[in-house]
Write the structure tokens for this entry.
Amino acid sequence: MEILIAGAGAIGCWIGANLLRAGHHVTFVGRGAFVEAVQSRGLQVALPDGGRWSFEPAALCAFESVRAAAEAQSFDATLLCVKSYALAAALDEMHPHAERLGQIVTFQNGVGAEEQAAEIFNLQRMTAGTLTSPISSAAFGEIALDRLGGGVGLADLAPGVGFAERFRRECGGEHMSIEVFADFRAMKWSKMLLNIVGNASSALFDVDVAQVYADPRLFALEMRMVRECVAVMRALKIAVVNLPGYSARLFAWVSAHLPDALARLLLASRVARGRGGKRPSFYTDVANCTGRSEVGALNGRIAEHAAQLGIAAPVNRWLTDELLRRASTPGSRTELPSEL
């Protein structure tokens, strides 16, 4: 297949590298610094077992814009791998070239990306995607798989499309297992349930996920956050489903039904191990005071749906507001409110 990766960050590069190894032609769209890096040094992928994949510059095709890529050729699929806060700008850029972009696969964290993209693309041309492998990036064109055992989930938005199943057959590999889901909402909400774990708390209190789960007060905050998410999913009639490498259903049940002390014993080591030693994404937003964050598409979306449903979600609302404040306020600190 001819595949366009729109958003050549860690996730886009990891998926693209696997597709290259599977024999597909991949075109990357990324920042100017990324294009310059891969054109001069190629793409490097480090594996947890010490192995390494190297793709020479001559084997790579990279552009700085979707427009330039679409003018050069048409594609069977475009994998949209930009951050959720950059999605609107990416869709605006893609819109004039929609007919040359093939099937649109949305890999944004959180929920709402599919509905946003559906305003431009016919549902028959849309597939929701999610990645459960922890990937980090040291520099442009240099990425690392932090832990084995994850994979890709796909779900077509309209019945009978068959793209997700075709992608699974043709694109899966040793380090990128692919599972197809019938309900894209169940897949994306279940991934969000995993994404929020230890994410905002780690960033706000400058600790790693293991420390979050070791602290009784922070762990209690985490459990309230998760229970609010599960309550919203239940009200929306969205099932929790297991994802490649992760038992989201067991995590949701333990979090929702067991006392905190017992839940902490069962979950602490598993959650820390699942991160593969990687700091959660929100940590960078706060540490670097980026002024933006994907928290709105995760905790923020939970709080929004809860408000619409008449469900209390004070923890997700506070985490969203506080993280956005910290990401925009240099030198600020966070104190855990007594009312939470």
Q: What stands out?
A: Residues 191-328 form a domain with the N-(1-d-carboxylethyl)-l-norvaline Dehydrogenase; domain 2 fold (CATH 1.10.1040.10). The mean pLDDT is 93. The chain has two domains: 2-182, 191-328. The longest strand covers residues 126-131.
